[in-house]
Amino acid sequence: MAETLLSKTERLSNRRKAAKKIGRYDLKISDIRNDFAHKTSKDLVEGSVSLLVFEDLNIKNMTASAKETAEELGKNVRQKAGLNRSILNAGWGKIRTYTQYKGLRKNKLTITIPAHYSSQECSRCGFTHKDNRPSQAEFICQACGFVCNADFNASFVIKKRGVRAVLNNEVCIKIPKKVAFSKTSAHRAGTVRTDAL
Q: Of the four listed, 38, 88, 111, 159, which is most buried by Cβ atoms within 10 Å?
């Protein structure tokens, strides 16, 4: 009886140790992601440009769980889990958020632009067709013959759309409210009424 109780205690103790170890590991990964997002956003804001344009990606929908099918049980879920992990590891949302508030401090505008068909549109002539992208990495315009890396071409398209949106006054800029905070109100908030005790 005493032996089984002792073995249960040891197992519980090991479980707690393992849980603490995993917690520390997860915290370290979170800190690394956060640090990367801060450094990347700082580099973007401290550049020579005055306008920063991001694709308006719905990261929550992009990282939603995949559905299993009757024919392929679990295969799609495993593939989607890997994609979700790489998207979340990149920290796109954090980089965008940090760039927005750091840009405000440096008087730089950060906007998001819809990314529809940006991978099929030519950044040179504006011709849009699905045949412009024969492979994942290659872009060849069927109208003007412009050849480029597909991701570089899409980034140029997003940049042009952002500049056009600003010039056409299509961007709505929300300036955050400044909240006044005085020492007296902080002191009042921290004091406890003795008559209430």
A: 111
Helices (H), the chain: 2-45, 59-62, 75-90, 92-105, 150-167, 183-190
User: What sign has the CA pseudo-torsion 10, 16, 19, 20?
Assistant: negative
Domains of the chain: total = 1
Tokens of 85: 């992990």
CB 98 within 8 Å of CB 113: no
SS3 assignment, position 168:
coil
Residue 77 in domain: no
CA angle 94, 100, 105 (to 5 degrees): 130
pTM of the model: 0.65
Dump pLDDT digits (tens) for 130-187: 999 999 899 999 999 999 999 999 999 999 999 999 999 887 766 667 766 666 655 5
